[in-house]
Amino acid sequence: MDALVAHYHEVGLKGRNRDFFEQQLAGNLKRALRGTGYNRVRRGFGRIVVDFDEGAPVEQAAERAARVFGVAYIGCGRRIEPALDEMERVGLELLGAEPFGSFAVRSRRTYSSFQMKSQDINVEIGQRFKDHTGARVDLTNPDTTIWIDLFGGAALIYRKRLVGPGGLPAGVSGKMLALLSGGIDSPVAAWRMARRGAEVEMVHFHGRPFTDPSSIRQAAELAEVLTRYQLQTVLHLVPLGNIQREVVTNAPSSLRVILYRRMMLRIAAQLAKEREAKALVTGDSLGQVASQTIENITTVDSALQEADGLQILRPLVGMDKQEIVDDAKRIGTYEISTRKYQDCCVLFEPRSPATRAYASQAEKAEAALDVEALVGKALAEIETRVLELPPP
Ligand code: ATP
Ligand code: MG
Fold first, then answer.
1. What is the CA radius of gyration of the chain?
2. What is the CATH number of domain 175-388?
3. Alpha helix segments (H runs only) across the chain
4. Which residues line the pocket of ligand 1, CB cutoff 6 A?
5. Which of the four CATH numbers 3.30.70.1130, 3.30.2130.30, 3.30.1390.10, 1.25.40.10 does domain 3-163 have?
């Protein structure tokens, strides 16, 4: 193997928007492929093609490329002269010695890049493969497929095709700050916004000094998984333990979780301002747990002022738990999220949390707290880590 081709969905991409998208995607692919021995990355004809030095681990590089947001699929194979005899010769090499019962040839060409139509190429090359291998053509359920991609006087042929995550290249939608617990939902929420082109920074609240550091480890590992997709992640770790103790001693127990959440939101909003993030992201799903009734969500949100000028995005709000779990498995966070860890919210967890708390109740309870001082102290204690995609 000596080349990769990245395809993306072009729907809705026009003019300058498309140029920006392609440029960002090519840049992100370069970052993802750093250290794999790629030679150059070129864009054009609605594709991005990556050439490799001889002996480079191209298949491993393909797997890295196939996680980059914006990629619809990656073809991993060989660059050839756009000629039928070359397609036949290299195609047969790719098919190799292992026997197979059926195959398909699927070519794709940009307008006038080759004198024959795609369908005619498929028939011609298919016939030649058939003569050589004795295998039959099956277009609906072939054992193996050879793809031929023709564009602007060049061609790529491949047998290995990896499906990418789709979406938009990380960075095209600006920066957002995701509230990351150690659980199943919030990493999926962060991933979904990153897939829409956001550069997602994360903030995790831990119960130190009243909990062990297990939730920090948990958050760091989840952020690492997301880094495979967005290439770099800034993770902020905030101690919430002292604030929780204040809440426990001064406020009604049924409101504890709501008040923790309001404090988290206030701290996150300040942090977002410092980091120039345009929105907060949470993993709430309507009605999933007591704290996620629409009344409670409204009351939590009301801790933010209009002047904060921040959107709170909840990409999972209409999803079922099973759908979220399926996503988490696909992304690679599920196994980490289901480990045991000490979550700060279960610290001093009340026996009966309020399922419908109103803003007026929360505000009344907060009158007994020095909210501003507590927020300021937590902000001063933030630890920030930068995670990078590890070298291959
Ligand atoms: P998750 O699976 O993401 O933990 P959950 O179903 O447990 O979510 P809650 O515990 O009600 O739901 O949390 C709702 C959202 O609040 C989370 O998805 C997350 O965005 C945010 N959140 C909760 N706890 C924390 C925390 N310790 N640090 C940062 N964000 C948090
Ligand atoms: Mg949770």
1. 26
2. 3.40.50.620
3. 15-33, 58-65, 84-95, 118-133, 185-195, 214-230, 241-250, 256-275, 294-301, 321-331, 334-337, 359-366, 371-380
4. 179-181, 183-186, 204-205, 264, 282-284, 288-289, 291-292, 344-345
5. 3.30.2130.30
Q: From ligand 1's centre to the CA of 343, what distance in Å? A: 9
Nearest C-alpha to atom 6 of ligand 1 is from which residue? Answer: 185
- How far does residue 136's CA lie from ligand 2's centre (Å)? 53
Q: Ligand 1 pocket: which of 186, 267, 319, 342 to mutate (most atoms <8 Å of CB)?
A: 186
228-254: pLDDT as tens digits: 999 999 999 999 999 999 999 999 999
Q: Domain extents for the chain?
A: 3-163, 175-388
pLDDT in tens, 77-136: 999 999 999 999 999 999 997 888 999 999 999 877 788 999 999 999 999 999 999 999
